[in-house]
Structures are given as C-alpha cells and as structure tokens.
Design brief:
mainly beta; 1 helix; globular; 82 residues
Length: 82
C-alpha cells in the first residue's frame, strides 16, 4: 500500500524507511508500517508531518489523510468523519 500513500499537501511520497520518530518513546519508525502506531510502545500518532529533510513540505496532516482514497472510503462508511 506504500505506493499509494502521499502527503495531502504536496503529494510527496514516502519510501518504506524509518523516517519518523515516535512522539512517545522516540524510537525510529516507518509511520505507514502500522497505520501510525509505534511498533515499539504502541502509541497512536493521529498526525504525520511531511519531512522537509527529505524534500517534503514540512506540514502536518491527520495520519489517515495520507491514504487518499482509502480515507475517502472510510468517510463514506462513516468510520471517520471527513
């Protein structure tokens, strides 16, 4: 699914690397490996920033917004409010 994930602001696409750090425990993580949940401590990240250091825009968005059509589908099912 990683190929469909992109920043909702600038369309930057992440690779399958650990580019983020958990806000709770600080461990390196791939934000999209487990839908924003840290594999180390279980913390749920509800927002994800687009990393400027990897040519992203630096803006934060709700994590599910990065999944594009997936997010729209959940909204239509009233699983999330969009």
């Amino acid at each position: 699914m990683i190929e469909k994930v992109h920043c909702p602001h600038c369309a930057w696409k992440p690779s399958a690397e650990k580019l983020w750090h958990c806000l709770e425990c600080g461990s390196d993580m791939d934000m999209f490996d487990n839908l924003g949940r840290c594999n180390n401590c279980g913390y749920n990240h509800d927002k994800t920033y687009c990393p400027e250091e990897y040519d992203g825009c630096g803006l934060s968005s709700p994590h599910l917004a990065w999944y594009g059509e997936f997010d729209e589908g959940l909204s239509k099912l009233n699983i999330i409010r969009g």
